[in-house]
Amino acid sequence: MRGIHRAKSTNRVVSDNRDPYRILLLTSIGLAGLCLIAAAYVWDITTPRQRDAITGSGAWSTPRIARRFDFPLLPSEQYGPYVQGISGELTSDTRYGVQNPAWGNQRNCFLDSDGNDVPFSQLFHSGVDLWALNSNGQVILGTAGSPIHAVADGVVTHVQDAGQDGYIIITKHRLQDGTERFIYSAFWHVDYVQVGAGDPVNLGQVVAQVYDQGGNSHLHWEMHTFSDGTLLFPPDTAGGRGTCNGRVAGVGYTWDDNPLRAHPDYYGYVDPIAFVSARIE
Ligand SMILES: [Zn+2]
User: Fold this and answer.
1) What is the C-alpha separation between 22 and 48, in angstroms, rounded?
2) Centroid of ligand 1 to alpha carbon of 253 (angstroms)
3) Cα 17 to middle of ligand 1, angstroms
4) From ligand 1's centre to the CA of 7, what distance in Å?
5) CATH at 146
6) What span, in angstroms and rounded, lies between the C-alpha atoms of 263 and 241?
7) What is the CA(101)–ligand 1 centre distance, in A?
8) In angstroms, what CA-CA distances link 117 with 45, 100, 122, 123, 222?
9) What 8-state DSSP symbol labels residue 160?
10) Ligand 1 centre from 57 Cα, in Å?
11) What is the Å distance from ligand 1's center to 171 Cα?
12) Is residue 1 part of a domain?
């Protein structure tokens, strides 16, 4: 009856029904399996984790390799970084497109875990602000509404409504100089978004327009890679605590509790203009 040559169809059911020990064994295995599933679920929903969902790893398709990069506002010579309302000390070697982010009504973004002001020396601006400039480097009207182009082939991981700051778009780009190296481009203060999270984009594809903020209309642009590939929200920073912006932490101005780490390079922010300039064919 239990020989290996018996038929696999109805004989098994008949056999099982006639064997109480086998039923008990199967029931026990089933219950144990359910317990394991339940335990895994509880573990999953109660275990704190790095806020890395924005990386989209596993959620979206892997971008094809980005072999070439270009600037988001074209022609690139008509746009450039500009620092408006600059105040406070400058340490140009530690931040990009610096201005004092404690200026104006954003001060509450820059309080440490004790509620104290983070020193200006520990704040940094993680991107460049691009404006339409004349040949003398002065801001001219026309930045608002400028089409924004994908800086390389990639996959959009995030489109976020940031209220009065417009929208934020983050795109993941796969680099060819490594097996699992990625860099993210982030655009802030954009409008008329043409893409959604999960969409593949091509170099030069128009993804949005510069948001109209009147005289303050500009594109905030960052390029961000990660030393360990996953650290999108570094701990002890505005991003890690989710205190700044309230929407997409880690984008824009940020800071670090530790002065030794309060440097864009430490967390993988790279100078967008330098990065792209080195990768234009
Ligand atoms: Zn900015």
Assistant:
1) 41
2) 7
3) 71
4) 72
5) 2.70.70.10
6) 17
7) 9
8) 34, 13, 10, 10, 25
9) E
10) 26
11) 17
12) no
Q: What is the pLDDT of residue 267?
A: 72
Provide the mean pLDDT of the chain.
72
Euclidean distance between CA atoms 217 and 224, whole angstroms: 23
Cβ–Cβ under 8 Å, residues 124 and 94: yes
Taking only the tens place, the pLDDT of each residue in 105-115 is 555 666 766 77
Sign of the dihedral through C-alpha 131, 137, 254, 157: positive
pTM of the model: 0.70
Residues 70 and 123 in one domain: yes
Mean pLDDT of 69-87: 82
Q: What is the whole-number distance in angstroms between the Cα of residue 22 and the centre of ligand 1?
A: 68
Same domain, yes or no, for 136 and 251? yes
Task: Please give the distance, rounded to the nearest whole angstrom, from the Cα atom of residue 85 to the centre of ligand 1.
Answer: 12
Helix (H, G, I), strand (E, B) or coil at 223: strand
- Return the structure tokens found at 93: 């070697």
* CA 102 to centroid of ligand 1, rounded, Å: 13
Place of tokens 């203060």: 189
Q: Tell me, in angstroms, the distance from the centre of ligand 1 to residue 87's CA.
A: 15
In total, how many domains does the chain have? 2
